[in-house]
Amino acid sequence: MPRSPVSSLLRTAALATLLIAALPAVHAADAPPAADAKAKSDLELPPLPDDKTIRQTIRLNGKPFNYDATVGTIKVRDAKGKVIGEVVYTAYTVPGSSPNRPVTFAFNGGPGASSVYLNLGAIGPRRVQFGAAGDTPSDSSELQDNPHTWLDLTDLVFIDPIGTGFSRALEEPAKAKADFYATEPDIKYLSRTVYDWLVKNGRLRSPKFLMGESYGGYRAPRLARELQTQLGVGIKGLFMVSPYLDPAAIGDDTALSPLPWMINLPSMAASHLEAQQRLTPDAMRSVEAYTRGQFATDLLAGRSDPGAINRLVGKVSELTGIDAVTVGRLDGRLDIQTFLRELHRGDRKIGSVYDANVTAYDPFPASAERKSGDPILNALIAPTTSAMVDFITREVGWKTDAQYKALSYEVNAAWDRGASQDKPVSDLRQAMANDPKMGVLIAHGYNDLSCPYFTSSLILDQMPSAMAAPAKLAVYPGGHMFYSRDGSAQSFKRDAQALFTK
């Protein structure tokens, strides 16, 4: 994206929440059974505990709801049958259900994020509050029943990729980077992890769904196609939550493309409208029409039209609430970093890239450049980590001395992203073409500037018309973690229910 170095770093950090060669990895099903007990790793690490299941109860819709909570592991093996990694998952299943009960596999993003955010924030049976205005690191990490859980619709399996949560590589760092921390091997071993869980738990007959948030939204369509075509597992539905769906569209590989500016403007405008209590779908349709039309035309016109920059400056200032002098210095091209700082400059606060209306005090207000972290990102690590570790080790009794990584900056830094390509979009098209019955729901929050909703809107508009019917875009009040708002979480579940019942 054509951003300053600081804002480019912010974009990378944003993709770290919440944000090559094919891996020659196989799993336990391809190795002799006796190899499990004798497997040797390159590292001297204590063994992880055996799988552990407990029965739990929440109140859902005013009634007791019983389910089993399991913490377990899936081994990752190389082509010779050697264990090179262990994936830890948390599963919630309803005992005594029909073999045809749906099961949903959920992934967060980063790269380097565990699945705790979808688990304890969005659709799991219990939750801890994070991602909204006023949340702080010292807030309570006590879990509460989640009235918006999807467990009454589907069993849930939350998968922590290698290097996140308690999942771990059993190789030296250089080998782990090649085998796990790159776009292509990531899809290979995570697809096989889904397959192995289904076999291990006798669930191959179940309707199968995938959910991915942020970079997990990059994973989801690619996992669906890999499972369809390489592992023989059909996917009934895809849920992409604030997805990082088209790296090529928002990249900074070309100075000519108007797309990055077009993608960001509606979310900036939505944040300004919400602050004024004027955010409505009708208001956003007007913003989107301008963005597709005169805004794009004026961006491309440049110096060929003497009035283009003046029109850009005036309209962008009006839509975003940033003064015309500041917007004028940028020739109407308002970057995310400037917007988040200038929007709240009068209060000496900074906005979050995940939700521009969630703020924190700027610790360095006199600095020309922002020097602090993201308000939401800084606030959510402590409560989510404490809540998840307490649940796994104390409630479930899956005891380990390993450190839990809700968000691994080491994994994010090591990640080989390869070339900026639209593989998620290409794989989504092919997966949908392979299976016209597969439902697709792409969900965003209006205020998200880390993965703006307008990217997905433009992508769906370019889909072949014969394939467009199964895909739906839903945009809710809030930001990247829009599900932290009760109303948006309720709407998201209602929209998702249509895929489970179709």
Task: Describe the protein's architecture and organization.
- There is one protein chain.
- This protein has 2 domains: 52-248 and 380-501, 3-Layer(aba) Sandwich (Rossmann fold); 258-373, no CATH class.
- Helix 6 links the parallel strand 10 and strand 11.
- Helices cover 39% and strands 17% of the residues.
- It contains 17 helices and 15 strands.
- Residues 1-39 have low confidence and may be disordered.
- The radius of gyration is 22 Å and the shape is globular.
- Helix 9 packs antiparallel against helix 10 (308-320).
- By secondary structure, it is an alpha/beta fold.
- Strands 1, 2, 3, 4, 5, 8, 9, 10, 11, 14 and 15 form an 11-stranded mixed beta sheet that branches.
- The chain has helices at 5-14, 35-38, 116-123, 173-180, 183-200, 215-230, 247-250, 259-275, 281-301, 308-320, 324-329, 336-342, 375-396, 409-414, 423-434, 453-461, 486-501; strands at 25-27, 52-60, 63-78, 83-93, 103-107, 126-127, 144-145, 155-160, 168-169, 208-213, 237-241, 349-351, 359-361, 439-445, 471-476.
